[in-house]
Design brief:
Elements: E1 2-9, H1 13-21, E2 26-28, H2 36-40, E3 49-50, H3 54-57, H4 65-74, H5 77-86, E4 91-93, E5 98-101, H6 106-114, E6 119-121, E7 126-131, E8 137-141, E9 145-153, H7 168-174, E10 180-186, E11 190-192, E12 203-211, E13 214-222, E14 226-228, H8 230-235, E15 244-248, H9 254-258, H10 266-274, H11 278-284, H12 297-308, E16 310-317, E17 325-330, E18 348-350, H13 364-381
Parallel strand pairs: 1-2, 1-9, 2-6, 9-18
Antiparallel strand pairs: 3-5, 4-5, 7-8, 8-9, 10-17, 11-14, 11-16, 12-13, 12-15, 13-14, 15-16
Helix pairs in contact: 1-13, 4-13
Length: about 375
Amino acid sequence: MNYYPVVVVGGGASGLFFTHLVKEALLLEKMNQCGIKLLVTGNGASNITHSENIENFVTHYYDKRSFVSPSLYSLSPTSLRKVFSSLGVETYTRSDGKVFPVSMKSLDIRDSLLSLVKNVKYNSEVLSIERKDDDEYVVKTKEECYRAKIVVVATGGKSLEKSGSNGSGYDLLSSLGHTIIKPRASLVEIKVKDNIAELEGISLDDVTLKIEKASFSGPVVFTRAGLSGPASLNISHYKDLSDSLVISLFPFTQDMLKKENGKLTIINGLRNITSLPHRLLSSLFPFGKKQIASATKDEIKIIVEKLNRWELKIKNIDDYAKAMVTKGGVDTKEINNKTMESKINKNLYVLGELLDVDGECGGYNLNFAFASAYVAAQDIKKKI
């Protein structure tokens, strides 16, 4: 049975980042290559972080701000960009604040890390992790068993299952006594019961979505059966809170329409005021071909209501196959947030999406994946 001071389970973003820092580690990857999910992030361009200052950055993790802060202050967006610059990957900030490699290729991010990984075994699915009495672990794959002083689990959640991220890490850690918060898809399209198929493809740059106590503003894209785009993806985290979703399209008052030429159609008048697409307005207001001058009080009331508070009934959210991240995972109460070491098992570390941490879209999840690996690596280097 081969011995390694550190065995890393999972070669995604966290596993690769950790192993490029800890050269003594053995990386076990179940697929035939590392970083498959990393390669498709940001539509293959790899949105690795966001350019805002760290004080604002840590607020984009829903209710996990206090847990993620130590690691993100250790590897802030600025620090992360410096790391990749030192690896030969320069980055740039897009107009919306999202940070990408200049090449716009996720492959460059993956390969810059992989080139520094000394020990990696592919097609090595881990079946079990057993803690021995002599403070060692035995990591069992289909082909071999490995002894290790330290084990780092970075298998990801269940999003984009075709990348190899199928939730296997939950079983591994549950067997070691960890609590698993029920996982579900997040940063994913919201499906609605309302028939909005005719709106498919319409994109709005800045609207506000509200669901119970949560609200997000930003771009939204209408799909055949629901809503996508950053604002919708972010609010999918809160899907469990409500059965309805309110869209604020424009802060419209009835006096606005009165100022338009009464001979214009209602749709054209609303276009002048709101700049909303003709197709959307025509769908919302079937009476929109009438002249403004002939609009009834009830019709004006409908316009005010729909533009300010258009309510859609939520059917469900899309599944893991299309989700960017997983909500749920290893209970963060059982993890030291300064080192990512288990509070239950000495020398066991848990990284990235496997934890019950999910951030908004915009580079927040990748930065945390890298940051969790960074603080774990700094702690482990002191032990080996």
